[in-house]
Design a protein that fits this description.
alpha+beta; 365 residues; single chain; 7% strand; 4 strands; four-stranded antiparallel beta sheet
Length: 365
């Protein structure tokens, strides 16, 4: 397994569990419910809802699949089904405060113990591998390369070798074309670092500047896609129901939905065009031949990737960006989590609309 990939997964645990305050808070919750004045259903259910919200965010950030790859000696705390256990006691209208307390106590104790066991193992792994990347920042400066991971989660892409080979070929060409849109120097063949199992992670090296621009591009697409998902899963239903059957207003809403749907790919195309024009200011030699076709080709593949629920990660951005504020990989991960959460509420017929409109068919190869 690639060392940077391992450290990226460990850093994700640290960010979502420690830096977020989750481990600290559940420790406080555990102490609080042991006070007799807090052993009432209103107080304890409020804590339960806060814990579920934390865990849902962790789930949307794919920490479970990451920990299953790294942890070898302990079970990931994300595999404990804590949300389901909390839902069971919250939905039990017959449970009294005493039984609720004892069940919640056991759930929190198990969760805390497992998190601490995971943290101990991860710290050991991090200590072992960190020394091998101590000179990574210099490596970035000299080679100007970034380590990027394409994460494939859909069976359509990875179900068999033939289809997966097509997807990798498509991405290889897309990255090379995208490079020519942003730089005048010829792109090198993209070296494959590793392919990891689970959800299939394809890890490769690519030009640093192109990787950062690609990260910002994917983030743009996710923001627009997320807005569409929010509209379809919640806002549209509330708006249309308020029209009380008014056909003109309903038709206008349907037209807005079409425009928002088209805007997913259009926003990606527009962002590539902006990036291309910006790069031309400092690199006059960038090839402008067939630029519209190139932009359309790249935007098609990226839209297909996003709609399928796949991801992309800039693994070693922390070596260049010291703070979270300007780190594009963190914003990308957050937007990915938002999309994942909103997609859960999308009706099947609306999911089919996305598939029919944006997914690349084999005959298009």
């Amino acid at each position: 397994m690639n060392i940077e990939s391992i450290l990226n997964k460990i850093n994700l645990f640290d960010e979502l569990v420690n830096k977020s305050g989750f481990r600290r808070d559940i420790g406080d919750y555990f102490q609080a419910i042991q006070q007799s004045q807090n052993q009432n259903l209103v107080f304890m259910k409020d804590l339960s809802n806060k814990i579920k919200a934390y865990l849902n965010d962790i789930q949307n950030n794919s920490l479970d699949s990451e920990l299953k790859i790294v942890l070898k000696d302990s079970t990931p705390f994300t595999s404990l089904e804590t949300i389901e256990d909390l839902e069971n006691i919250d939905s039990n209208s017959q449970i009294d405060s005493n039984d609720y307390y004892h069940t919640l106590y056991a759930i929190l104790q198990k969760l805390i113990d497992t998190i601490d066991t995971n943290a101990t193992e991860l710290n050991t792994v991090k200590g072992t591998f960190s020394k091998y990347v101590s000179d990574q920042l210099n490596k970035w400066s000299n080679d100007e390369q970034a380590i990027v991971s394409l994460v494939f989660k859909d069976l359509q892409s990875t179900g068999n070798l033939k289809d997966f080979a097509k997807v990798l070929h498509r991405w290889n060409r897309t990255l090379l074309v995208y490079h020519t849109i942003l730089k005048s120097e010829s792109p090198q063949e993209i070296p494959l670092v590793e392919i990891q199992n689970g959800s299939i992670d394809v890890i490769f090296n690519i030009d640093l500047d192109v990787a950062i621009d690609l990260t910002e591009l994917i983030t743009t697409g996710l923001k627009v896609y997320g807005a569409y998902l929010l509209y379809k899963s919640k806002i549209a239903k509330e708006i249309i129901s308020s029209y009380m059957g008014n056909k003109k207003l309903i038709k206008m809403e349907e037209e807005r939905e079409i425009v928002m749907l088209d805007n997913i790919k259009d926003s990606i195309k527009e962002k590539i065009s902006e990036q291309h024009k910006e790069k031309l200011k400092t690199d006059k030699k960038i090839d402008k031949t067939g630029i519209d076709k190139k932009i359309d080709e790249v935007s098609t593949v990226i839209t297909d990737h996003i709609i399928k629920g796949n991801e992309i990660k800039l693994l070693n951005a922390h070596e260049v960006y010291e703070g979270e504020e300007d780190n594009p990989s963190i914003e990308l991960r957050r937007e990915t989590a938002i999309v994942k959460d909103r997609f859960k509420n999308l009706e099947q017929k609306d999911k089919q609309v996305l598939i029919d409109k944006f997914l690349i068919k084999n005959e298009e190869e």
